[in-house]
Sequence to fold (215 residues):
Amino acid sequence: MRRLVILGTGGSAYDVLDVVDAINAILPTWQPVGFLDDSRPAGARHLGLDVLGPLREARGLTGCFLVSAIGGEKSFRDLPRIIGSTGVGPDRFATLIHPAASVSPRARLGRGVLVNPGVVIAGDVSIGDHVLLCPGCVIGHEAQVGDHVILAPGAIVSGLVRVESACYIGAGAVIKQKLHVGAGSLIGMGSVVTREVECGATLVGNPARPLKREG
Fold:
């Protein structure tokens, strides 16, 4: 079996282990050996596994694959820096696909992608590295999703949409077909996006509108 180290001990760590269990129930493939986390001391226990040390120790864990369980609406813009701090190239990261996900054979997935149950990925979709696809989200035909993007549960990215890197698409949000979502954007929970999204914007509501900054 392939040894797997999980980056981060947040809520998505549960998802990683659930996906691994589902894969192993069909064909034993992955052996989780522990976590790397900057906020817990080495030797601590979490979800039945040891914390092996901080993220910077990833490079020394030769013979192990990695997968990220880091990221939320507060930290998503920092994901490129956080993953980069490991000093590990994309070839060391595992893409994990739950057996209950529907992934077109014509879709292209990068490294370090986590695909949870109920996810639908249509034909000719392109997904970058270190993308988190939470349960029940949908990516329509010919859409493009950049690196370090998070799609929260039930989010819908319609066909021919282009989502640039380090974006967070909130739970139940819908992006209309053929739109462009700029890098570092946040789409709030339940929002309906009907127009282009500028880089770094925060949109909420139906129809979604930019959130005005105070001051």
